[in-house]
Amino acid sequence: MATYSVEAQAAFDEDGPAIQVPVKASPGVRTKGAGTIQVVEFILGNELFAVDLFDTREVITQTEVTPLPNTPSYLKGIIDLRGMITTIIDLRQLLEIAAAKDDSFADLRFIVLDDTVSSQKTGIVVDEVTSVLTVPVTDIDNSACGSIEEGGHILGVIKKEVGERGESRKELVIWIDVRRLISNANR
Question: Using alpha carbons only, what angle is made at residue 47 by residues 122 and 73, rounded to the nearest 5 degrees?
């Protein structure tokens, strides 16, 4: 099992990352500076998603998940993460997103969530973690996301600019409220 921080700029080799840095954040702090937020961007199926950086602890690669009997299909099982039992939730199944590739856990990443997100140690399955973004709040559209009060789990859509100047385009990243999503799943 390889483990690394979402903030680390890791040099990868075939055995995994060369750098491991724990993610530290002040509780309740969701912004990097005035008017910006930080999110962890990842891929599910063929779409880009993001969760608040301060809701994550680390990103790991893991191949052995112990399945649990008589559990919902999105609950993939448990892993032993440095002596701590960690519940693994397949975010693709929870959000009803088709897998873009083989469902083998060998190539997937698990985002281990911060202890404040859930009452038990929890990780979510994602296809790939792409980056940590610092996003101006002006680049977030939350008008078409439905009401959080009504049980919605989408905080907004981040309009991320990619490409060179003159040839740049916007990619849309769905920013989800992982706290609400996990809380609703545990009901």
Answer: 40
